[in-house]
Amino acid sequence: SKKFVPSQSTSMTLSHLVLNRHQSNTDTASLSKSFPLKARGGGEIADLDANNQLKFLSKALAVTIAAITALKSSLVSGPLGVLSLTAIASAIVTPLTLYRQAYSFSVGYGFSVAAMCLAMLFTFNPSTIFSGSMPNLLALSGVFYGVRLGLFLLVREWTVAGKAESVKKFDKSPPLKRIPFSISVGMFYAFLCTPILYVLRGSGGGDLTQITNVGVTIAWIGALLEAVADTHKFLVKRNAKDDFNFIGPTGGVYLLSRHPNYLGEIMFWSGIFVSGLSSFGTQIIPWICSSLGLVGIFFIMFGATKRLDKIQLERYGGQAKYDDWVGKVTSPIIPFIS
Question: I want to staple 89 with a disulfide (CB 3.0 to 4.6 A). Which of 15, 112, 152, 224 is the partner?
Fold first, then answer.
């Protein structure tokens, strides 16, 4: 079941991506003194003084503006850009993971990628987002990829029988214990988006080299291929009466490989990585972070393919339609490679 069903090896890989960042200390005692609350019986909070409300809102606004300013500054330059992306991704992934643990690998994955790319677009090129420059098109591919994936997974969960229950089954850890893992997952997603950050840093909003153009093209093809494959599979399987009779899909992009959605994902992130090569230069951070992200996504996709192939063989093996399709389409992910 898409997306990123966490195996033991996957969890061990992601758990090593631990976020280290400085956190500011807040004088909670002084805050509580500034904003006294009157409590009623049963724990109900009421009668906040209007002036205290305004003070609280103004302080909250000031903190928010300061945080946004700091994030934008570190995205534009300096060694903390990837940590800023991690903060953005974690802000999306963590609350979703607290709600549903499986969302860290699915809905949170898609929406965090979209959020990071939107943040970068509005940081570097707020007035020329749709200018058609290759760096902007690269970031827009991430927005398209993330929004499309997140919405698709939600629609599938809400409309396909049994999907909601299968998502709930992953709620095994207490909510607070999910937070460190969600942050490490957020860092992994930041690693994947690191090439986009350095392309935008190096371009100043303009075009770079031909290798960037090639990478952007590959990324868009991969994102569109995954969208087509996901939609095709959804339309074929949404009205299935049970999950024990193989109904496909077996045509269209499913003649390229048995898992063209995973092929599209690999192409997308490979294109993102290639696009950033000319902007990395001799900087260590983008090389290390981007390489870890690409190796990680390859490991996850090929691992997921092996598990899904095994499940399908056990469930559908011996059925004529399945056996015929597998005999015809011998490539699990990469076309022409069995």
Answer: 112
